[in-house]
What does this fold into?
Amino acid sequence: MLDITAQWFEQQVLQWIGERKLHGLGGGLPCNTCSRARRGRYRIVNGKRRKGCPIALRSTSQPWGVDGLDETDNLKLQNANRCFEVAFRLLRAAILAGLAVWIENPRDSILWLMDQVLALRDLVPPDRFVEVNFSQCCFNSPWLKPTKLWLFNCAVRTREDAVAQGFQRCISKRLKGGGSWCPHLQKAHLTLSGFTGGRANTKKAAEYNSDLSLAIARLVRG
Ligand SMILES: [Zn+2]
It folds into this structure.
């Protein structure tokens, strides 16, 4: 796997941006440390930490990390922060060079509250920026997963154009006994909360399916 925090990587991508060898840059940044699904607390039983819901590493008021994390969680946070710092520098350079740039994360991700992300919007005039909120089931994912996309210098110029290309919010119906019914899929959404076999269900939905990948490519290139 490529380590984007390696010094050569950042320098190489900056060089490609400067030489205009890239059509664009996409930032599907890892959301595992930013997720609102992390809402557990540390629980120590008989001197050992009990496994359960992962604890929140960030908060609205401390998007770069909360105080009081244990060594394992702090390492996870610092690794993610180093990744973000590189990604934000590269995305900023690409936007300033006029390249097409997009950023994706869950709609409620704490990523969207980071000053470095918010500052990216000031780099382009309003007509070169589009924000889209949509549900991934609209692209045939079995889960709803509310998602946000920010697009800079891309072919799509208005939110309405993105909506017309399928980037819509699912208007689901609550089902008795839990879950929700999807009018696109014509069945219940797969739930992403909780764990299966010790693995967070949200991990299953971290990748884009091919329908969504193609749709994003169309927003970027037209
Ligand atoms: Zn749906």
Observations:
- Residues 71-96 form the longest helix (26 residues).
- The chain has a mean pLDDT of 89.
- DSSP finds five helices and eleven strands in the chain.
